[in-house]
Amino acid sequence: MWELARLFLKLGTTAFGGPAAHIAMLQQEVVERRGWISQTEFLDHLGASNLIPGPTSTELVIHVGRKQAGWPGLLVAGTCFILPAAIMVGILAWAYVRYGSLPAASGLLYGVKPVVMAIILQALWKLGRSAVKGAWLAIVGLVTLFLSVAGTSPLPVLLIGAFLGIVVSLGPTPGKSAISAFVWGNLIREESALGAFLAGVSPGFLPIFLIFVKIGAMVFGSGYVLLVFLHADLVERHAWLTQQQLLDAVAVGQVTPGPVFTTATFLGYLLHGTLGAIVATIGIFLPAFVLVALSAPLIPQIRASRIAGAALDGINVASLALMAFVSWQLVRSAVVDWITLAIAVLGAAVLFRFPRLNSAWLIAAAGLVGVARYAVS
Questions:
Q1: pLDDT of 11-64, one tens digit each?
Q2: 170: burial class by Cβ within 10 Å (0-12, 13-18, 19+)?
Q3: Coil vs helix vs strand at 7
């Protein structure tokens, strides 16, 4: 158990670069260096993590902990991977609230935000090359993008993507159509009921917890898809935060290691201080622990399921459509003049030219440019 704690505390403190980097580092540590699980088992757990909502790399860590040390290992591995990043983000949230209006802090975020847009663009490109496996899935992506632009909320878009993925891959059958319609209808009703319950409610501990539990239980694909749900719930539906605050939170999530989902820690602090940060963090990660605990014994069946794989294809394409739409909305807040435009374009050029470059270096350089710009103005 101590070996698990040491490993995942180290990874949680040093794993910069997003989910793909986390997964690569985890494979090196638990398969190659320690031999805890085989390469085949690692891929099975990765596939299972992709089939359930939540932060994929964190869920993979939780799977490895359970495989190595049972249910206690599940809790220790996940908690130790999340905790360092959550503490760092919490400290930055405190500094943001206290010093965010100072020129140095404003300059830092001024430079970092355009690079965040470049990082998301690179993620869209990489994920799109893997997710769009043919012309029909490309059409599914266009349909879900149109629905996003038309104002459809994220959950129905993802469910429509899953349904279309099954239809495209397997062909429609009455049974599948009925099951999909039943699941889709009930989930939409549940989301609408929760939205109605929270409408007009101030951001107290229970509403914060419920919002972040819902988001943690619904986000498929890359951690960047988290932006879609945060924007829809916290900015548009409840107006608890501004779009600028959300973009600042995303920037902070990029300059820290560990899961992108610790953005919730930052937002929780903005909403209700230290206890709000704790409640939001527990809420957004709780579904990952529960879903891994429930799905881990079913990995052999999940791996062999054609329907699950087809639904996942559709969900991934729909997730990319949502990411593209929200990224376009956010870029208007990040690129405000020719300097930020130059930072975004140069950042994208460097990332595409050197795809293995750790994005933390770009973020640090852009932050320095932003601070220098404010210092001379």
A1: 898 776 667 678 878 888 898 888 998 888 887 888 778 778 888 889 999 999
A2: middle
A3: helix
